[in-house]
Amino acid sequence: MEVETVDWFGWFAAEHYDIARVVLQRGIAAIYLVAFLAVLRQFPALLGEHGLLPVRPHAGRVSFWALPTLFHARYSDRAVRVVGWVGVLLAAAVVAGLPQRGPWWVPLAVFGVLYLLYLSVVNIGQVFYGFGWESLLLEAGFLAAFLGSEQTGTPVLTLLAFKWLLLRVEFGAGLIKIRGDAVWRDLTALYYHHETQPMPGPLSWFFHHLPRPLHKVEVAANHVVQLGVPFLLFAPQPVATWAAAAVVLTQLWLVASGNFAWLNWLTMLLAFAAVSDAVLVGDPVSYVGAPVAFVVVVCVMGAGVLWLSRKPLMNLVSRRQLMNASYNGWHLVGAYGAFGSITRRRQEIVVEGTLDADPEHAEWREYGFAGKPGDPRLLPRQWAPYHLRLDWGMWFLALGSRAQLAWFEPFLRRLLAADPATLRLLAHDPFDGVPPAWVRARIFDYRYSSPRERRSQKVWWVRTPAGTLVDPVRR
Question: Once rounded to an integer, what is the mean pLDDT over residues 362-383?
Answer without folding.
Answer: 96
